[in-house]
Amino acid sequence: MEHYESLIKHLQDRIELSEEEANLFVSNFKIKKIKKRQFIVQPDFVAKHRNYVVEGALRAYVVNDEGQEHTIAFAIEDWWISDYNSYIYQQPATMFVMALEDAVLLQIDFETEAKLKMANPKFETFFRITAERTAAFFQRRIITNLTSSAEERYDKFITQFPLIANRVPQYALASYLGMTTEFLSKIKNNKLKK
């Protein structure tokens, strides 16, 4: 039950549930242990699970025609990750989702999630809140990327997500922020000199 405690807290921070309801909710999740560099989603295969991170760090990214990687999302403890377009529409994925560290996930599959939502409107409310927060986060991220300089994007990221900034490889952080690894190194070096 130890792996489920963080998910129960996550759930109860967002909606009011009885102990019985919380236990029913988490009983629908399976524990998945993955190794560093292991993929849980790959392009052309349907993303079968929504993944809650109990331990570890993961990265979702795409690769363009020139072979350049673009990080779409990170996830550490108490965060969710998947290729949501693939998961929600049950169509082939376009992203890779890979462990940056050994990780423990709690996974729910699409059909089980649908049944859970039908079983209790509170569960549907939880998934709606999660989706709304995710949509709002991605909107803020797009606006920041379109309206801020590279240095401002870096500053904002390390202020908001210091735990992630210290755990992910520099190349992954650079691609998330929309810059080269060399340019990120230059920004960091300039900050050290100040």
How does this model look, in words?
By secondary structure, the protein is α+β, with helices and mostly antiparallel strands. It has a domain at 2-118: Jelly Rolls (Sandwich). The chain is built from nine helices and eight strands. It has helices spanning 2-12, 19-26, 84-89, 110-119, 121-147, 150-160, 162-165, 170-177, 181-193, and strands spanning 30-34, 39-41, 49-55, 58-63, 69-75, 80-81, 96-99, 103-109. It has a four-stranded antiparallel β-sheet. A hairpin with a 5-residue loop joins strand 4 (58-63) and strand 5. Helix 1 packs across helix 2 (19-26), helix 4 crosses helix 5 and helix 8 crosses helix 9 (181-193). It is globular, with a radius of gyration of 18 Å. 26% of the residues are buried. InterPro entries: cNMP-bd_dom, cNMP-bd_dom_sf, RmlC-like_jellyroll. Pfam families: cNMP_binding. This is cAMP-binding domain of CRP or a regulatory subunit of cAMP-dependent protein kinases.
Characteristic terms for this protein:
Jelly Rolls, 8 strands, 4-stranded antiparallel β-sheet, single chain, 51% helix, 9 helices, alpha+beta, 194 residues
Radius of gyration: 18 Å
CATH class of the domain at 2-118: Mainly Beta
What would the average pLDDT be, to the nearest integer? 95
| Assembly state (oligomeric) | single chain
Unreliable residue runs:
none
